[in-house]
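Progress note, project year one: complex with cytidine-5'-triphosphate.
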Amino acid sequence: MSVLNGKKILLGVSGGIAAYKTASLVRLFIKAGAHVQVIMTPASKDFVTPLTLSTLSKNPVHSSFFNQDDEDAVWNNHVDLALWADLMLIAPATSNTLSKMTTGNSDNLLVATYLSAKCPVYFAPAMDLDMYKHPSVLSSFTALKSFGNIMIPAESGELASGLSGEGRMAEPENIIAFLEADLESKLPLKGKKILITAGPTYEAIDPVRFIGNHSSGKMGFDLANEAANLGAQVILIAGPTHYKTKNGLVEVINVVSAQDMYDACHEYFNDVDVAIAAAAVADYRPKVVALQKIKKAADEFSIELEKTKDILASLGAIKKNQFLIGFALETENEIENAKLKIQKKNLDLIVLNSLQDEGAGFKKETNKVTFIDQDFKIEPMELKSKESVAVDILNKVVLHFAKS
Ligand code: CTP
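Model obtained:
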């Protein structure tokens, strides 16, 4: 999945012949799963039509401060447009537009929006080879880079003038590759490996029966997707669940029993930077698993159970630098029990679920959690979707690496 998936992209098109290539650029953004809005300078409309770009972007194209054709002359709010965007790309960026960007000459909607943008801004220059080397253009590049804007260098080749040299706008495929590589390199968990456990475990009684629980696995899968979106390499060890990962970069290891989950966790743990135990692991399993289906005979029947291994505690016992997060599901003395679990399992952070909280727990779309860290700092969170809880948990991970 492209890092551009779900991103809100504001494309500013200025008036150079390379503007015709923005049709392909918009298509590639849409294909990557991005949302696109286009702003055109008046001059760019001579090179590509607003209808082309609005059709491809599936959004109206903006080119002036208000819509002249509208009787009510609705104002195009450049501030709203700028704040909507996750990233702004100016392509093609002509020497005229670049110069206006450096001086703040906002006589068109594109430059006014650029000046209001708080998101990362990229620009892909396009001009003739001598213009591209002119000191005035070079000083625009230097100024824009000093503002924190990112230049996507022009490429060499045949130019509209008939000359050949540097100045052609980067090809749309190369612009997309540049953006993807740049965004990926800046993801906060890039280079980190995270192990996550999810779902229930099933403990066999005989070939057709098991002891299980109502865990859906949603919390662990949401954590895995979010961690991968933040650039982490994710190994998700999942008990039986119907959930699928949304992010194709998550490596899923399917297991059934607590022992399978224990073995899989220990296979990967030494190699990871973070482990999050979100699984509802069975605490007990039948001592003996019948090889054949147990037949109905006596009026009463009991199964002798034995303890399973506590996976999280076993990871806590061998951890080196790993940041270890556990969950605690409690029904009484929540905070005290959770604190005991932090110590007993050698955790860095515990995510406490109280079944006394409305909207929290198994088979729910929402969760209400309290964070407790190693120093017993308690942070109660609002009731929110499990996706948002996953974001909060991973923010703690990001913060941990930002501090260390
Ligand atoms: N856990 C685990 N292996 C087990 C049991 C629990 O890894 N055999 C992990 C869970 O994934 C969770 C944490 O330990 O992150 C706490 O689980 P919880 O069920 O709240 O507590 P238990 O340790 O099982 O203790 P109790 O059931 O007595 O509250």
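The two ends are 30 Å apart (CA to CA).
The mean pLDDT is 94.
No further modelling is planned for this target in the current period.
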